[in-house]
Design brief:
three-stranded mixed beta sheet; alpha/beta; globular; eight-stranded parallel beta sheet; 15 strands
């Protein structure tokens, strides 16, 4: 996301050492017959975010499960023997088929949880709505051991299907420089992306593998990095979301492509997933979507060279791509990118061939989306082809989830989109070892 950066000289958050037992105790006490808890984004120099929530209805009728069908020969018309399903397909389909509609909807969310001071009421909201992923947000200097203890407490409250946990996906913002949520014992101080971009790619890959090992030790499955945005040298620090904080790997598409790929490769080597962001790029804008409405890119086209880092990352197998909340007038002038079928469905999915999980930038608190209700944000993003809704404000989840459930009951094509998104998210969890498949 266009994350919040720590203000120089700001107060450091309280240690988790005293909070952890309290939070785990609160989760356990409130657990009776309920499930899942979950997370959200990090912190730039006070870029804020947005609104609300409502009640949770019943589960309704189970949705049909996805099945594997045999292929027919195009030339002879004869049916061929069905190919045996892959272990991943079998596993994810088994989980999907066993889920209630509410559990499926919950998989569409990643909710924000403070890494330093988790809020019990927010955790209950996430659990009550079966939220399947969390993002550790803000700043914590507690270190790997304390963070792992906290994360394990969250995982213990995740939903179950047929007696097996639907593994909670835990993410954070660990780019480096002024965007590093987790620090303290066991964590390195990661330099800014601009500094990383000055290193040989082999050095960056090796260092990134080490940073990923630290996140893995802390229980984190997904890093919302690397930044694949190209900030022109002539724009530099006037670029509010990226250049102002040295979050770019360089000022040319080639440098950003090679170094964002090296960062992702190092993380993959250590078993931590990464996220290319912020498609189709925030390098040409002035305003920051976290704190500004009507952020517009009037330069980028569907064929711009600045899309090279995204194309390269997708070819390399990036499992997640985050979509920005700016408007790109030369691609789709009528919609924010996160709400644009042209940006997500056509450019990202069809033209670039991305088959992984499309995650939003923050749809809970970012000023860029405040003119839309939480329900509209969720429906617009999923209708455009998105999969996972990132919200740093758990209070927005009830209204979003209610709107999704209602639309699913009314619209079969929308329900099919949701089913596809849940399958993609479960596939990512399977790849991360978060589903028990035996």
């Amino acid at each position: 996301m266009t994350t919040r950066v720590r203000r120089p000289g700001g107060r450091r958050p309280a240690s988790l050492r005293t909070m952890t037992p309290l939070i785990i105790l609160a989760l356990t006490a409130a657990a009776c017959g309920e499930s899942a808890t979950h997370g959200g984004p990090a912190d730039p120099p006070r870029p804020p975010a947005s609104s609300s929530g409502t009640k949770t209805p019943g589960t309704g009728d189970p949705l049909p499960s996805r099945t594997t069908t045999s292929a027919a020969s195009a030339t002879t018309g004869a049916a061929t023997s069905p190919a045996p399903p892959t272990p991943a397909a079998t596993c994810t389909d088994r989980y999907f088929s066993g889920m209630t509609p509410d559990q499926r909807v919950g998989q569409l969310f990643m909710g924000g949880v403070s890494a330093a001071n988790p809020d019990g009421a927010q955790l209950r909201t996430l659990r009550d709505h079966h939220v399947g992923s969390i993002m550790l947000t803000g700043r914590s200097s507690a270190g790997t051991t304390v963070t792992r203890r906290l994360v394990d407490g969250f995982r213990g409250q995740a939903d179950q299907v047929a007696g097996k946990r639907v593994g909670l996906m835990v993410a954070t913002d660990q780019e480096g420089g002024r965007v590093q949520v987790l620090s303290g014992p066991g964590f390195s101080a990661i330099p800014s992306a601009l500094t990383q971009g000055s290193w040989p790619v082999t050095t960056l890959r090796t260092r990134a593998a080490g940073w990923a090992e630290q996140l893995k030790a802390a229980g984190v499955d997904l890093d919302l990095a690397p930044v694949a945005d190209v900030v022109p040298a002539g724009l530099g620090t006037r670029n509010g979301p990226i250049g102002q904080y040295a979050r770019e790997y360089g000022h040319t598409a080639d440098t950003v492509a090679s170094h964002s790929n090296a960062f992702a490769a190092g993380f993959a080597q250590s078993g931590v997933m990464t996220t290319l962001k912020h498609f189709p790029g925030l390098g040409q804008v002035i305003g920051n979507t976290d704190v500004s409405a009507n952020v517009v890119d009037s330069v980028t086209t569907a064929g711009s060279p600045d899309l090279l880092p995204f194309r390269a990352g997708i070819r390399a197998g990036s499992p997640f791509v985050m979509v920005s909340s700016a408007t790109y007038t030369k691609i789709d002038s009528k919609h924010l990118a996160a709400f644009s079928p042209t940006v997500i469905g056509q450019l990202l999915r069809r033209e670039m061939g991305f088959k992984g999980v499309v995650i939003s930038d923050d749809l809970g608190n970012a000023v860029a989306v405040r003119s839309f209700t939480p329900a509209q944000r969720a429906l617009n993003f999923l209708s455009a082809g998105g999969d996972m809704i990132l919200t740093v404000r758990p209070s927005t989840v009830p209204a979003m989830a209610q709107a999704i459930r209602t639309r699913m009951q009314q619209d079969a094509s929308f329900r099919a989109k949701v089913d596809d998104s849940v399958h993609r998210i479960l596939a990512a969890k399977h790849a991360a070892g978060l589903l028990v498949c035996r």
